Amino acid sequence: MIRFWGQPKFSVPTGKLAGYELFLRERPTREGEWHLPADFGAFAVRDFDELLRATLATLPQDLQLVSLNLDQEQFVDPDYVAQLGRWHQSGGPQLIIELTERMGVGANQVTPVRLVEAARIYQEAGLRVCVDDVGTGANQPELVDVLDPVVTEYKYALQNVRGTVNVGVIRAQVAYWSQRAHRQHHQFALEGCEGVADLTLIHDFAPDLVQGYFFGRPHPLTIAADLSI
Predict the structure, then answer these.
(1) Residue 159: which H helix or E strand, with range?
(2) Which residues belong to any copy of the EAL domain (predicted)?
(3) Which of 88, 155, 182, 229 is deepest in the core (most CB within 10 A)?
């Protein structure tokens, strides 16, 4: 069984709920525990799409946006590109595709050219593309340079660096991506805000969107029934 969990995303200028980031979770039985899938590629795109529609049908109608994570292999998968590319035609909140720092489980290297081609198709279909976890994994500045013309948002994940680098380094990295987003006329999102200390980063760098445990933890979203696969 699969279900989307959602973490609220808040608009900094308004202080209001802007939408949710959706996280796919699965469990073996109705009585089992929800957990992160070991292989996201194991799910058919039609199941993913059915679950997405069932989930969004239960969310508030005034949401501005909903975002989905795709690793590099999913991002360029023709089935995802085609199915999600049709999503904008159905109305509802703005759908944002977040390209994560993960390569995917397959052995094939995803070239920057393929990522740009897929991002352009999403963009032409009315979807927005966010480079998630900028500065970590595959999403280094060199790749972002290539993707800049076809993305609209950077997201910096505090949880990826917390405890591994000092506060000064974190501030420098947030400053870099915030200023870069401003120059490129992209939105900037700050993820992983977990305590009062992180509010200083919000105050000093004024991201457009924030999310994290301080504002709301991921939780199971209501749908008519768990989707069995």
Answers:
(1) none
(2) 1-229
(3) 155
Instruction: Encode burial over 63-87: b for 16+ CB neighbours within 10 A, e otherwise.
Output: bebbbbbbbbbbbbbeebbeebbeb
Question: What is the pLDDT at residue 42?
Answer: 75
Phi, psi of 47 (to 5 degrees): -70, -40
Domain that holds residue 144: 58-216
CB 217 within 8 A of CB 200: no
pLDDT in tens, 55-108: 888 888 888 999 999 989 889 998 888 888 777 666 678 899 999 988 766 656
Split into its structural domains, the chain has a count of 1
**Euclidean distance between CA atoms 134 and 136, whole angstroms:** 6
Please indicate, yes or no, if residue 78 is contained in any of the structural domains.
Answer: yes
Give the pLDDT score at 89: 65
Q: Using an 8 Å Cβ cutoff, are 190 and 200 in contact?
A: no
Residues 178 and 144: their CA atoms lie apart, in Å, by: 14
User: Is 39 part of a structural domain of the chain?
Assistant: no
Q: What is the Cα–Cα distance from 133 to 139, expressed in whole angstroms?
A: 7
Helix, strand, coil shares of the chain as percentages rounded to 5? 40, 25, 40
